[in-house]
Design goal:
Layout lengths: L1 E6 L7 H8 L5 E4 L8 E5 L2 E5 L12 E4 L7 H15 L6 E3 L8 H9 L14 H9 L12 H23 L6 H15 L6 H10 L4 E4 L23 H8 L8 E7 L1 E4 L12 H9 L12 E6 H11 L3 E5 L9 E10 L2 E3 L6 H4 L3 E8 L15 H14 L3 E5 L7 E3 L2
Parallel strand pairs: 1-7, 1-8, 2-5, 2-7, 5-6, 8-11, 10-12, 11-15
Antiparallel strand pairs: 3-4, 9-10, 12-13, 12-14, 15-16
Helix pairs in contact: 3-4, 3-5, 5-6
The structure holds inosinic acid.
Length: 421
């Protein structure tokens, strides 16, 4: 039984909380794309844990964590995160599997990610080296995890990768090269450390499916950051859609049973790019403070705006969402009114679908429907315990997207979530 959890906006929708909530029903949590650019926040034993690379839920001792072939893996970050998690949860190494096909993120990729910002027009990347690492991967000059377990193969591959990347660093940015010997030794050492964790995760997952295990695929970033269907070029470098799980893990489409799409009751975005419903007055600051809207990976203040139903419906259709998880409804408690965009005006024409050209999305003017705000939410047992105004808001989203809201998250604690429908 496979469930995919993906973000329906520009990331930071609260996927970590939903996955953590679901994890007691699952045996295995799997990352399938992205890398340490993700930041999935959970509250565990009164502490805040942020997972960048390890699958969320790994803090629970019944969960196996799988890092599938589509993930860009940063060796330093992996070891750091394992160590950090072990401070809370005891040893986790024996519960983590890493696919030998994962592209490796090298220090030179992180350096180039920073230097390239200007060239790319200030996308506002997380500088975790994700774009440059995937670039090498697709250009077939990258290093994969399996190479670090084979000294001769690593020598060949590292020479190739470094030659290319050092040229970019030197010729374009006048920076000194990364030295082969040091990196080679470090990567071999890392390979030895992780050898027990490396396994063909594709055959592992097929076996576990046969054993009728419950498996959760954990998306990172969000639909609107997808490399193809997102707001290109202001996107990440991987396939963030539910179908990205199939590409990133090598499983057939019919293996997926449920697709949970996560959205906030409003919208945020970090980094540059079009954002039709962005708020430019004090209301944005109010949402930012009440929702603690600061990047989990970079600490940057997030841009804030109203819920955009045109984009939400687009995201639902791209992913084949079977159930929506609506998060952070508590952040809007106490607002006199709450808005949602229901259509755009583009050159005085009315449209209900986002234009395929990102530059056109810069020019749309959202048309809003206004809702009366809702009061504080206190320990609801069912949907009917929620404020009436919030129920109206939820019903409107369901009707518009033609998709049921299955989960409502109303606070930061793991128990502050309601399963409905
Ligand atoms: P990159 O993925 O670091 O290359 O960054 C590309 C764009 O995606 C930038 O606008 C980032 O801010 C954004 N981004 C990457 N990862 C996340 C995430 O996990 N949440 C929100 N935005 C992200």
């Amino acid at each position: 039984m496979i469930t995919v959890v993906i973000g329906l906006q520009w990331g930071d929708e609260g996927k970590g909380k939903i996955i953590d909530h679901l994890s007691n029903q699952y045996d295995i949590v799997v990352r399938f794309q992205g890398g340490a650019n993700a930041g999935h926040t959970v509250y565990y034993k009164d502490q805040t844990l942020i997972f960048h690379l390890l699958p969320t839920g790994i803090q629970h001792e019944n969960i196996m964590g799988v890092i599938g072939p589509g993930v860009a893996l940063d060796p330093e970050q992996l070891l750091h995160e394992i160590k950090q998690t072990e401070e809370f949860s005891g040893s986790v190494r024996e519960r983590i599997l890493i696919d030998p096909r994962c592209p490796v993120v090298l220090p030179v990729h992180k350096a180039i990610d920073g230097w390239e910002e200007e060239l790319k027009g200030g996308i506002g990347t997380t500088k975790r080296g994700i774009g440059p690492a995937y670039r090498d991967h697709y250009a077939r000059i990258g290093i994969r995890v399996g190479d670090t377990l084979d000294p001769d193969q690593l020598k060949k591959r590292l020479k190739l990768t470094l030659e290319f990347n050092n040229q970019i660093l030197g010729a374009r940015y006048g920076k000194p090269p990364f030295l082969f010997d040091k990196l080679y030794t470090e990567l071999l050492e890392w390979g030895k450390t992780i050898t027990p964790l490396v396994r063909d995760t594709h055959t592992y997952l097929l076996e576990q499916l046969k054993n009728r295990k419950y498996i959760l695929f954990e998306g990172a970033q969000g639909t609107l950051l997808d490399i193809v269907f997102g707001t290109y070029p202001f996107v990440t470098s991987s396939h963030t859609l539910s179908s990205g799980a199939l590409v990133g893990l090598g499983l057939p489409p019919q293996s997926i049973n449920q697709i949970i799409g996560v959205t906030k009751a409003y919208t945020t975005r970090v980094g540059k790019g079009p954002f039709p419903t962005e708020i430019h007055d004090n209301t944005a600051q109010r949402i930012r403070e009440q929702g603690n809207e600061y990047g989990a990976t970079t600490g940057r203040p997030r841009r804030c705006g109203w819920l955009d139903l045109i984009l939400l419906k687009y995201a639902v259709s791209l992913n084949g969402v079977t159930s929506i998880a609506l998060t952070k409804v508590d952040v809007l408690s106490g607002f006199q009114s709450v808005k949602v965009a229901t259509e755009y005006k583009l050159n005085s024409k009315s449209i209900k679908y986002p234009p395929a050209y990102t530059s056109h999305l810069e020019h749309v003017k959202p048309v809003y429907k206004e809702f009366t705000g809702w009061s504080e939410i206190s320990n609801p047992d069912s949907l009917n315990d929620l404020p009436r105004e919030l129920i109206q808001f939820i019903r409107f989203i369901e009707n518009y997207t033609e998709t049921k809201v299955g989960y409502i998250s109303y606070g930061i604690k793991s128990e502050e979530i309601l399963k409905v429908g």
